[in-house]
Amino acid sequence: MKRSNLETVAVALGLLAYAVIAPAQAPAADPKPFIGAWKGTLSISGMDIEIGINFTLDEAKKIQGTIDSISQGAFGIALGGIEIKDKTITFLITDPNVPGDPSFKGTLDEAGKRLAGEFTQSGETGAFSVEKQ
To answer: Would you say 82 and 63 are in contact if contact means Cβ atoms under 8 Å apart?
Structure first.
């Protein structure tokens, strides 16, 4: 059975639409391994700062977070731009009172008990490492 040109175009458009829509419908990475309280150290410019990070799920099951700079007496600082890909999480400090566009990128260890990676603020790069509490 021979297809008409119109049928061929319709099939091609259908496949194209599926290729564009399907990736957008891919499930988000599982936030559950990151949920909870974490405590550790951020090291930058020769300083070690004790930090705490807390990730939760809101009512819509979207990951939310705050960070505490324990050494500096600052608590409950809002995090945003939280993205998870496999065992890696990236996030920003979104509080307008914190200068320098601070950002984090960390990876969970195999046991899911330690999160470590890179911290950047005002062009300076450091490291952070926190353990699940």
So the answer is: yes
Assessment of whether the complete model's pTM goes beyond 0.85: no
pLDDT tens sequence across 49-86: 999 999 999 999 999 999 999 999 999 999 999 999 99
Which overall architecture, per CATH, does domain 32-132 show?
A: Beta Barrel (2.40)
69: left (phi over 0), alpha (psi -120 to 50) or beta: beta
* DSSP 8-state class, residue 71: G
d(CA 55, CA 3): 55
Would you tell me how many other CB atoms lie within 10 Å of the CB of residue 59?
A: 5
3-state secondary structure 47-66: EEEEEEEEEEECCCCCEEEE
